[in-house]
Amino acid sequence: MASRWLTLLLALVVTLPAAGSAQTRQAEVLSIGDGDTMRVRQGGRPVTIRLACIDAPETAQNPYGQQARRYLQQRLPIGRVVALGVKTTDRYGRLVAEVIADINIGLAMVEDGQAFTYRRYLSGCDAKEYLDAEFRASRRRYGVWQVEGGITRPWDFRRGRSAAEIPDGTTPGGRRYRCSEIGSYDRAQELLRQGHTYLDSNGDGQACESLR
Questions:
Q1: What is the pLDDT of residues 26-57, one digit of tens each?
Q2: What letter would DSSP give residue 57?
Q3: Which of 10, 22, 102, 169 lies at a C-alpha separation of 20 to 30 Å from 129?
Q4: Radius of gyration of the chain (CA)
Q5: Which residues face 85 on adjacent strands?
Q6: For strand 81-89 and strand 54-55, is the pairing parallel, antiparallel, or unpaired?
Q7: Are 196 and 172 in contact (CB under 8 A)?
Q8: Neighbours of 101 (CB within 10 A)
Q9: pLDDT tens digit string along 165-176?
């Protein structure tokens, strides 16, 4: 009887798919939208992909947005077959996925200064790997890090929260700071305590989290 149950158990294990395998899919590159979006053919139909765990400069952030797009085009020419490590579907209906073509494309973009690690959406990715890659890019002054402290983060750019674009005479001392010019995370928290609440862009009580 014991041997019979062992045989049935082994048969079940053999027929079950490996854990997580359902989330890894093959696809063919159709086009590149910008530095972190692309269209692929997957399962016989076109699908829009948002690269997971990174945020590339917006197209309007010249010249960095166009540079990121060209970088992605060079890495992923039309017709290239890639593996998709799907994490979720976003509110726009796009598949959020790590894209693998010999290497992790999103991670390579961060390493080469073509994108930022998207700290707010790191779930499902190796956070340390992405943060370490960003640190190396910043030390080497690659791409978006050619500017001291890095260019305006894409998420801030989309919100229109750049201090240069939003005059504000009500802040302490009448001056607004940009995270990129503050220099340290501790200094940013000090400014937040002094009343510079605009430095806490997502309202979580921490200023300039990109400086951590």
A1: 999 999 999 999 999 999 999 999 999 999 99
A2: P
A3: 22
A4: 21
A5: 24, 98
A6: unpaired
A7: yes
A8: 15
A9: 444 434 445 577
Give the start-end residues of each E strand in the chain: 24-34, 37-42, 45-51, 54-55, 81-89, 95-101, 103-104, 116-117
- Residue 203: per-residue pLDDT: 62
Helix, strand or coil, per DSSP, at residue 133? helix
CB neighbour class for 113 (10 Å; exposed up to 12, middle 13-18, buried from 19): buried
Specify the long-range contacts of residues 100-108, CB closer than 8 Å, at least 24 apart. Answer: 101/75, 101/76, 105/51, 105/72, 105/75, 105/76, 106/36, 106/51, 106/52, 106/53, 106/54, 107/54, 107/133, 108/75
Cβ 117 vs Cβ 133: under 8 Å? yes
What dihedral do alpha carbons 142, 144, 147, 148 form, nearest 10°? -80
pLDDT greater than 70 at residue 60: yes
Q: How confident is the model at residue 185 (pLDDT cuts 50, 70, 90)?
A: confident
Phi, psi of 202 (to 5 degrees): -110, 5
Q: What domains appear along the chain, each with residue ranges and CATH number?
A: 23-145 (2.40.50.90), 160-211 (no CATH)
Instruction: Please state, in angstroms and rounded to a whole number, the distance separating the CA atoms of residues 55 and 149.
Output: 16
Q: For residue 132, count CB atoms less than 10 angstroms from its CB and return exposed for 0-12, middle for 13-18, buried for 19 or more.
A: middle
Residue whose token pair is 């990129």: 180
How far apart, in Å, are the Cα atoms of 61 and each of 42, 69, 182?
31, 12, 21
**Could you report the per-residue pLDDT of 76-111, keeping only the tens digit for each?**
999 999 999 999 999 889 999 999 999 999 999 999
